[in-house]
Amino acid sequence: MPRTAVELFAGTLLVVAPHMDDEALACGGTIALHPDPRRVHVVYATDGMKSPAPVSPRHDAISPDLGELRRRESVAALRLLGVPAANLHFLDLPEAELSKHEAKLARLLLEYIRRLGPDCVLVPFRYDRHPDHLAINRVVTAAKRGGEIGAELFEYFVYHRSRLLRRRDVRAYVRPESLLRVDISSVAQRKRAALDCFATQTTRFYEWQTRPILQAGLLDEECAAPEQFLRYDPALPGMKIFTGGAAWIRIADWLEPRLVRLKYQLTSWLMPAR
Which domains does the chain possess? Predict the structure, then answer.
């Protein structure tokens, strides 16, 4: 393995992002450290029309241009990280519904991978909870196993925190020899500035929101800590990547998003209708 992330990711790098902001949140520092960010490309899978979204139909709807707003946010954020707008590619598949469009997702992603010829491809972690993240991991890792992708494949972490795990972070249970840690301290301020471009996610963008989707404390933590990547190894599929606690990790991975959704729904129903 190369000694540094700069060596490892120095060629053409492709980040596959389920949603606008995932790329900056999980990989922003690594992108900023690239010796030539003009060789970084990002493919966004979804149309950006479901975040923010009202938990209850009793509350306000989203604006019809939300997807376009989020596109512009990503263009502004990646510009701060050195990546030109021409290197951002949008598939515009329905947000929160990628699992219904996996055949089309696989076809479109493989078209971009063949066209761009990346040396490394970054995709969401196999247990990253959000269904869109999991759909991307499934189709890309299946293509890798099938020999359709020659590039090195790494998984990045967005939903790594868990209150249901004793160590509070799923990465603490991953085989350490499979993890690559990238020190982003020298570009932390640039990463934070890029994240601040996502006003739809980092502010109370609509009146009916009780809080931003990405709160300031979480952003501070993400910019202060190293970014971590899991080197994909077909010999370590699924839960085999963990050193211990796999059974409870599987339960926590299934349970936690449902508890969060229930909390939001209860909060919403307790608020007076507008």
Answer: 5-270 (3.40.50.10320)
